[in-house]
Amino acid sequence: MTATLALPDAATVLHTTRAQRVLLGLHRAMDFNGVWAALQRLLETLAPHDTMVMSVNYVDWRREATTRRLTSGHSRVLADEKTSRLVVEEGRHFFQPFLEKNPGIPVYHHTQVMAPEKIPDTRYYQRVMTPFGWRYSAHLLFWREEKVETAIALRRRPEQGDFTPVEMEVMRALHPHIAVAFERVKIFEGERRRRRLLESFYRAKPEAVLFLDWDLSALYASQEGMAMCAVWNFGPKRARQFSPADVFKLPPEIAAACATLKPAWEQQAPRGAAVAPAPLSTEAASADGTSRATITLQRETGSALIKPIFIVRMQIPEGLALPSGAPEPTAGHLRARLTPNERRLAELVCAGLSNKEVAARLKRSEGSVKVQLSGVFQKLHVTSRAKLMVALR
Predict the structure, then answer these.
(1) Counting C-beta atoms within 10 Å of the first and last residue's C-beta, which end of the chain has fewer, N or C?
(2) DSSP letters of 154-170?
């Protein structure tokens, strides 16, 4: 009687020394380039393929409008403008209806979209897959609020065979690890972006300025910016009755002007080119015409996982006395509230060091740094590293 060998399951595959080594490489990565390099090694090891393409941070996933599109170093076919355009044209008929019916699905392959025997006859395969010698495809999708944010496509030639159930299960098991890596890098990129924005802003003369993310949440608002928003929303006379920070709200005309720039940005960056699209600008005015603002939408170089930002500069009418809140303590007064050890820690944080780097510099554990930094935040009434930097400048 001939014994049959049992095929390994996903758990067995992931617990091999080789799999653990490449997975740890992903968790060690601290920036986008490190995560991308680790992802290539991870998926080349655990789900061999012919070509791997990652579409990063979609601004419109249905049109394949993405901040950046990358092809892995070992891929046989590079993602180019023509291929991306074909994916947009044919994908809306092939896989988009499937994704609309399955929001949040983390992993899928094309044989889930339709019967395998029908796939080669579809326009998508005839125009996109077959010309490049591909027959099978598997995808990892990373969603936010029922929209695809980032996607990874793995494609195989006919002789490589379809992705097996075990390989698909392995990719499902890897999905949360990759999602955590993306979130980690987004947090770090966001902090670095805030520091760069504030540093560039404070090199110039302070003005009425707002930095807004893609969803129009304020990343930063100068005191003059908050005061001008109060004047814009309530009028100069009524605005003086409030503290600008307490009633801060983005004026509706500015929000509407920002919204008009989004489609134009998506149109000029539909294929995720590595070169950042040119900044877009527009203007807004209050209903009475006394308040005006210039709005610029731009992408930050080097922040692949961060969507473009809005920079709003508001004009302060000549002779207008802006409302002011309670006087703010000086940086010297704020430092005096801290112990010598807390001041040293705050200085390192303001210099841009991470908690891990601060811990190494002070020869302490990362946990104790986090605890003490939380105490510094409470003493100075700030809620983030960026606000700590502003307070102590």
Answers:
(1) N
(2) EEE-GGG-PPPHHHHHH
Enter the tokens of residue 10: 């996903």
pTM beyond 0.85: the answer is no
Question: CB-based contacts of 137: which residues, under 8 Å, 6+ apart?
Answer: 109, 110, 129, 153, 154, 155, 156
- The DSSP secondary-structure symbol of 310 reads E
pLDDT at residue number 364? 86
- The pLDDT assigned to 284 comes to 94
- The two tokens of residue 127 are 């125009």
Domain ranges of the chain: 10-185, 205-315, 331-392
- Name the token pair of 6: 């049992």
Tell me 16's DSSP state.
S
pLDDT digits (tens, 9 = 90+) for 130-156: 999 999 999 999 998 888 889 999 999
The DSSP 8-state label assigned to residue 353 in this structure reads -
Residue 304 has pLDDT above 90, yes or no: no
Residue 96 CA to chain centroid, in angstroms? Answer: 23
According to DSSP, the β-strands at 51-60 and 147-156 are antiparallel
pLDDT 10s digits, 25-55? 998 888 888 999 999 999 999 999 999 999 8
Please give the structure tokens belonging to residue 219: 């990343």
Is residue 326 pLDDT above 60, yes or no?
no
Identical topology for domains 10-185 and 205-315:
yes
Give 52-115 as a 3 state SS string: EEEEEEEEEHHHCEEEEEEECCCCCCCCCHHHHHHHHHHHHHHCHHHHHHCCCCCEEEHHHCCC
Task: Give pLDDT, residue 3.
Answer: 46
* CATH code of domain 10-185: 3.30.450.80
Handedness of CA 357, 358, 363, 367 (dihedral sign): negative
Q: 205-315 is classed in which CATH architecture? A: 2-Layer Sandwich (3.30)
Is 326 buried (19+), middle (13-18) or exposed (0-12) by CB count in 10 A?
A: exposed
The kind and range of the H/E element at 377 are helix 366-380
Phi, psi of 268 (to 5 degrees): -85, -10
Q: Which two tokens stand for residue 260?
A: 């008009």
CATH number for the segment(s) 331-392: 1.10.10.10
pLDDT on residue 188: 80
